[in-house]
Amino acid sequence: MSSFNPTTKTQEALQSALQTASANGNPDIRPAHLLAAILDQQDGIAAPVLKATGVDPETVAREARELVDGYPKAEGANLANPNFNREALNSLTAAQELAGELGDEYVSTEVLMAGIARGDSDAARLLTGRGATYDAIKGAFPSVRGASKVTNQDPEGQFQALEKYSTDLTARAREGKIDPVIGRDSEIRRVVQVLSRRTKNNPVLIGEPGVGKTAIVEGLARRMVAGDVPESLKGKTLISLDLGSMVAGAKYRGEFEERLKAVLDEIKNSNGQIVTFIDELHTIVGAGATGESAMDAGNMIKPMLARGELRLVGATTLDEYRKYIEKD
Q1: Residues 219, 179: Cα–Cα separation, whole Å
Q2: Is residue 3 helix, strand or coil?
Q3: Annotated region Disordered: where (predicted)?
Q4: Which of 302, 292, 304, 308 is CA-nearest to residue 328?
């Protein structure tokens, strides 16, 4: 397995499987060890992919752990460092082959899960018995990964980026979590009017702190859910982008840009189905930029605004609009 090239999450899963096998006294690492390890991960992609096939990941993880608990136990010096058995090695090989077929440079956890399902182990039978066959898992990749390829060791930040770095305001309105907005009908109508244009359709809400700029956007979300908007906005999704969480934890240069690009790509691929709201709009000027680079969030968003691929509602104060946005 010298050619096996895992992502960070896959490496963690392999290490976790080894530790579990060693702690349980199992003489070798089997596919069930691997399956339990990847489904138990926080922020992993395997569980959402499995869910997309219609199978409950928690149930499969529990049953995989039950398989592991039922394996024979042994005593000896090798238990501290058990080896992969033949079925596990076959799963790793199948995963590496699938990664090459997908154009991925690294083997991610959902690809490893597909490799397990392709085999003839008890873990494979557990997956296929519930309907998560190799083809079903592979077919669920686009719903989670989109058209993205795994080109670095930490691809999870780019998958389901919208779900991680934004809040669906229309979903909150549908669930009754947004209160009615009183006395802002004319402002909401004006926002709807600007959004309905073919070009220059990106309104900015300017006002002092606390006057209710965000409330106007929440009122818009309620109207979109109720269908009280023009045809161009009916059935669309209104999201609030959280730049703070996107910047947080971005340790390496370019990591913020990768996250933002993943979000923008998802918005672009929605074919106009998503309207984006950015509170404190002035923060996009300089967000993610370093001293050596002029590239920031604002410069990444501009081309999409110019081409009409991004419908954006911004909110900021008059002073900050003049200082950061007006001159740009």
Answers
A1: 8
A2: coil
A3: 1-25
A4: 302
CA nearest neighbour of 119 among 97, 142, 152:
97
Q: How far apart are the first and last CA of the chain?
A: 53
Q: What CATH number did the domain enclosing 74 receive? A: 1.10.1780.10
Cβ(208)–Cβ(316) below 8 Å: no
Three state DSSP letters for 101-125? HHCCCCECHHHHHHHHHHCCCHHHH
The answer to whether residues 179 and 218 belong to one domain is: yes
Inside any domain, residue 115 = yes
CA distance 109 to 13: 8
CATH code: domain of residue 188 = 3.40.50.300
* Domain assignment present for 2: no
- Structural domain span for residue 47: 8-156
SS3 45: coil
Say yes or no: 202 and 315 in one domain: yes
C-beta separation of 249 from 288 below 8 A = no
User: Using an 8 Å Cβ cutoff, are 150 and 104 in contact?
Assistant: yes
Helix (H, G, I), strand (E, B) or coil at 141: helix
pLDDT tens for residues 205-232? 999 999 999 999 999 999 999 999 999 9
φ, ψ at 178 (rounded to 5°): -115, 125
Contact assessment for residue 146 and residue 265, using Cβ atoms and an 8 Å cutoff: yes
